[in-house]
Amino acid sequence: MSTIKKAKRFKKSKAGTYLSIGTSLFGAVSVVKQARQARVDHDRLQLADALISAAAITTGVLILVRELRSMSSDDVLAGD
Q1: Measured between alpha carbons, how far is 4 from 18 in angstroms, rounded to an integer?
Q2: Has this prediction a pTM greater than 0.85?
Q3: What does 57-79 look like in DSSP terms, one character per residue?
Q4: Which of 29, 37, 38, 68 has its CA 20 to 30 A from that of 50?
Q5: DSSP characters over 29-47
Q6: Which tops the pLDDT comparison, 11 or 18?
């Protein structure tokens, strides 16, 4: 199996989804730093950028959590 196929399969796995959530949350650390610095500098444009970035990260994490839940519901032993 090629490396690309292995990577795609990992991306769709539970472990890959957890890793994606972790990296998204790690990105939130820099957004928090950016927002704090913008508040100190009274820079509204930087603050707006930080808020929009935070919204994008939040949306991405929520989509990944939904995908993770759908993986769990596909389990044979799970009831509907």
Answers
A1: 19
A2: no
A3: HHHHHHHHHHHHHHHHHTSTT--
A4: 68
A5: HHHHHHHHHHHHHT-HHHH
A6: 18
